[in-house]
Amino acid sequence: MPLPKLSPLQSRLAASLIASVTLLVLYFAFMSPHFAYAADVDSIRPEDHNHERLLGGPFLDFDFEGLELREATYEAEFVGVDRGIIGRATTDPTALTNNGMQQTNIQQGRLVSYMFSNASLWGPLTPINSGLPSQITLNGKNKRDLREMENLDDTEDDQEIEDGEELKLKPRQSNSKNQRLLYITVTACRQPSPISNTTTDPPPQLQLYVSQSQNNTNPGPGQSPQDEVQLVGGYALYQLNATGDVYIGVYGANVNTTYSDVWNAQIAASIDEPYHYYWNSSDPNLFLVDSDNNSALLYTDPLILDSSNTTLYQEWMDMTPPFTVFASDASDNSIMGMQNSYCGLQTKAQISASRPGQTTSAIQTGMTSIGNGSLPKQQFYITGLGAAKTYNIALAMNGTTSSGDSLVGAGGQVFKMTSFTTLSGMLIPYI
Q1: Taking the mean position of all CA atoms in its chain, how far away is CA 87?
Q2: How many angstroms separate the Cα of 305 from the Cα of each of 51, 141, 214, 262, 289?
Q3: For each of the chain's 431 residues, which pLDDT tens digit applies?
Q4: Is the pTM of this model over 0.85?
Q5: CA-CA distance, 154 to 163, in Å (whole number)?
C-alpha cells in the first residue's frame, strides 16, 4: 500500500511528533530508579568508600504505621531520640578561648553547647601569677597538688573528704607533643527556685558533658561517646588530655513541676590552671576564735608554715588582705546547691563583703599575727548577727588578686563551707 503523500506542512508536523515521542521514551528510560542507581553509583564506586553501606539499606528502621498524625504545627522531632530526655541546641557550639569565661542562662530541659578548638588547645601558655607572696597550703598540700585529685564522682553526694582522710592524688598528667592537659570548669551562679515553700531541697545539679569525637560534636544526655560529670555544690572541674577539638555541653534537667526559673552558669576552659577553683579538702581554712550575741571573730589558717623566712613573713603582713567570706543563716537554704561556687555565693549569700550595696561595717578584715605561732593570717570581724544563731560560712578569694577577663584562675576560689554559732556575752574588741 503506497504511503499517502504529505504536504510540506504535514511533513513537518509528523517529524515533530516523532521527535517528541522519541524524547519522551528516552526520558522515562533514564529516569527509571534502577537505571539511575546503576549509572550514578556504579560510576563512582572505585572512589566511594561508603558504597557497601549504601547497599545495606537505611540506617534507622522504624514503623511508619505507628506514626501519629497531628496538626501541621512545627515541633522538632528526632527519630530514635526521646524528646523528654533532651532539648537539643539549635545553633552551632559557642567557641571557648583559653581562660575566656562564658556566662549564660540554661533553661530547664535545655542543652548549651561549646567547643574548645585545636588552635586554642595548642596556643601559648599564659604565665601564672596568683599575686600572693607564696602558695596557699592546706593539710600540707598546696593548690597544685589538690587540683590533681581524681575527678569528682557524680554518683556520690558527699564529695568533701572526711576529716583526717588523706588526699587522694593521681600522678600529674604532663603535656606532650601529642596531647595537652585541659581544665574545664562550670559554676552555677543562680539556680531554679522551689515553687512550693515546703520544698527545702535544692534543685538537681547541672550536668557537664565532654567529647573529643567527631561523631559527637554536641555532647549531652543520650549521646555517645562522651564523659559526664555532675556539678557538686554548683561546681565541676573536669580535666583531660586533649589532642584536638573538644566539644562541651552543659545541661539543666526539666523539673518545672517542682522548680521555676533557670540556671545561670559560668563555663571556662584553660590550658594553664582551672579558671574556677574549689578546694576539695577537709580543711575550710577558717576557724572561729570567739563570738558574742551579735558578732564573731574568725581567722584563716596560718599563711606560711614558719616564721624563719622574715622576708616572706613581712610580705604577707604588708599585703592587702586577699580573702573574703560569704555567710548566711543556716535556716536559709538559698545558697545550698551553690556552696562551692564563687559566683553562686556572691549572688545568694546573706553576708558578703564584695556585693554592691553591702554595708562596710558588716565585715571588717585585716592581717594579723596574733595566736597560732605568731604566723601571718587574715582575720574577719563580722557584726550584725543574731544571738544564738548558727551561720554557714565559706572563705573565698576573687580569683587572683588582680582578677579580670582572660586571666588565669580569675573565676574565683572557694574553700569548704563550715559553720559557727553565736553566743551571749560581751562584745569582742576588734583587733
Answers
A1: 17
A2: 69, 12, 49, 44, 20
A3: 555 565 665 666 666 667 676 766 666 655 554 443 333 333 333 344 443 333 333 333 334 343 343 333 333 333 333 334 445 554 689 999 999 999 999 999 999 999 999 999 999 998 887 788 888 888 656 655 554 443 444 333 333 333 333 333 333 445 667 899 999 999 999 999 989 888 888 899 999 999 999 999 999 999 999 999 999 999 999 999 999 999 999 999 998 889 999 999 999 999 999 999 999 888 999 999 989 888 999 999 999 988 889 999 999 999 999 999 999 999 888 889 999 999 999 999 998 876 555 544 588 899 999 887 789 999 999 998 989 999 999 999 987 554 455 688 999 999 999 999 998 755 555 55
A4: no
A5: 21
C-alpha count within 13 angstroms, C-beta hemisphere, residue 137 = 11
CATH among 2.120.10.30, 2.40.330.10, 3.90.1300.10, 2.60.120.380 for 94-157+166-276: 2.60.120.380
Distance CA(251)–CA(231), nearest Å, equals 11
Name the CATH architecture for the domain at 286-421: Sandwich (2.60)
Please name the residue that has the C-alpha cell 590550658. Answer: 271
The partner residues of 367 in beta bridges, in order of sequence, read 378
Q: Would you list the domain boundaries of the chain?
A: 94-157+166-276, 286-421
Q: Which amino acid is it at 422? A: T
